[in-house]
Amino acid sequence: MLVAFTSSIIGSPDKLLRDFGDSFLTQGSAPTHLFTQAGTYTVIVKALFGNQTVVGMLPVLVGTDLSLQAGLEAVTKQLIA
Fold it and tell me: Which pLDDT does position 79 carry in this prediction?
């Protein structure tokens, strides 16, 4: 699942860091991230202002649509046959 993130921060941080909870880290104000497995992830955002850090957390639930998955598998089998 591809997720786009934005930030509403008062001020201009020196750095804006994100930990997506799946061992992937990034910098920037509006990154996108591809979660490759279903599950609940805690995205941690750190805004660095000089020697001060502001931290925010956001839970992200990535689900699986099993009917869609079954449909895609059926189409794949037809294409291979």
Answer: 41
